């Protein structure tokens, strides 16, 4: 997948792609609460023949726990359909360490299980002289564990993080993510860890290898992890506007973080996606929406009375802004509005 901009699909995405790699937090659920349209969208996608693997940067929980939560939210899921950053971190450790090496684990049960399953000895103290420290998010991680990690890293242990997400969407709002906790150890030691999670495409490739697929679609809410990982791995990416990154973020996205499709929520898997096309006088059009960049300022035109119309405006705004940037022009961020798309079928 090499297209620099948005692409179109005349058929629902679930009919075009045979496997979706779906993020969890901010996409299928928020904390312990379901996200509108998730069950409908994923159930409909499966009915159209699309297979699902849930790929998450969260390393705190075991696949069985994640599958149970999804099933309880009306998204029937087997543990084999869950790929976690804990599993990716264990794979990264195995690339360098011999079986039986000792690893200081800072994180939850999911990370402990994955590291043990990879053949390593889990320790909890820097005084055990671990060969590596692996850190993943868990709500119970506190100063004592971070201090042990810092002591071990200072003494020469290889430092690995499951991911570097600074924030984590919860039902109450945005909370510190693993990257924020990693920042404490990094500040204390001056050592930046190797990261196993997104935006590295390693988990995506692991999931595709496990599932087998011809056409793969990555689905996520964060441009800097989910969609950057899609670009890095050569996969098509769908950005759903139910989590961290906004439609305005799409318009201002760096080339390596741009999505190929944009949808309001997971019901956009069941919709065709129109492609913006260039028109006269520098305009880009997508059904009823139009946009162009003049002297660095984004100009928009078209109705915005429905989610579908708003998405068309977002799509042309992206097309116009990305085209201008790719031609070496500057786009003034102050000219880009928020463009809030309500949670609704957005194709």
TrEMBL record:
Q: Which is one GO molecular function term here?
A: phosphatase activity
What this protein is called in its record is Haloacid dehalogenase
Q: Where is coiled-coil annotated?
A: none
- Pfam assignment, any one: Hydrolase_like
Q: Which GO terms describe its cellular component?
A: cytoplasm
Organism superkingdom: Bacteria
